[in-house]
Amino acid sequence: MTYNTGREQALLALLRESGEQGLSLSEICTRLTPSGKGKSTIFRLLASLVEQGKVRKLPDGQSRHFIYQYTESAHCRSHLHLKCVECGRFIHLTERLSRLLCEAVETEGNFSLDEEKTLLFGRCAVCAGGESV
């Protein structure tokens, strides 16, 4: 059963506003409940939104923590993502490039990728050398 609560709407709005950045659980809690109360409620809401496909739960690449990104559209689930380990920016690869990369990994590496869970880590052009994005 899904409830459309005010806290859920605030959470979705916050994740929409964060765009390509994505937010950790502690960042979300700090922004939504500065008093620190309600962390378990937010965690349950996030789990529900991930299950519904509205939010992606991704490893942050530097620890055992996760980041959350708004991805309600099916388009976002149909391609791979890059994450900058310096600034945290997400980069959406095109569906064509995602397909080519997955095919190369499957053919050359004899390995099947799960596109919905694949996130590649590195440095964006700005962090790697000052190129503008």
Name of the CATH first level of the largest domain: Mainly Alpha
Instruction: Give the beta-strand count.
Output: 6
Strand content: 15-25%
Can you tell me the overall shape?
globular
**Poorly predicted residue ranges:** none
- Order the strands across the largest sheet as they lie in space: 1-3-2
Order of helices and strands: HEHHEEEEHEH
Tell me the radius of gyration.
Answer: 16 Å
Query: What is the number of helical segments per DSSP (H or I, 4+ residues)?
Result: 5
- Measured as a percent range, the helix fraction is 40-55%
Describe the protein's architecture and organization.
There is one protein chain. This protein has 133 residues and is α+β, with helices and mostly antiparallel strands. The protein has 2 domains: 1-72, Arc Repressor Mutant, subunit A, CATH 1.10.10.10; 74-133, Dna Ligase, domain 1 (2-Layer Sandwich). It is built from 5 helices and 6 strands, in the order H-E-H-H-E-E-E-E-H-E-H. The chain has helices at 6-18, 25-32, 39-52, 95-108, 125-129, and strands spanning 23-24, 55-59, 66-70, 81-84, 90-92, 119-122. The chain has a 3-stranded antiparallel beta sheet. The radius of gyration is 16 Å and the shape is globular. The protein starts with 5 loop residues before the first helix and ends with a helix. 17% of the residues are buried. The model has no long low-confidence stretch (mean pLDDT 81).
Keywords:
133 residues, alpha+beta, Arc Repressor Mutant, subunit A, Dna Ligase, domain 1, 2 domains, 3-stranded antiparallel sheet, 3-stranded mixed sheet
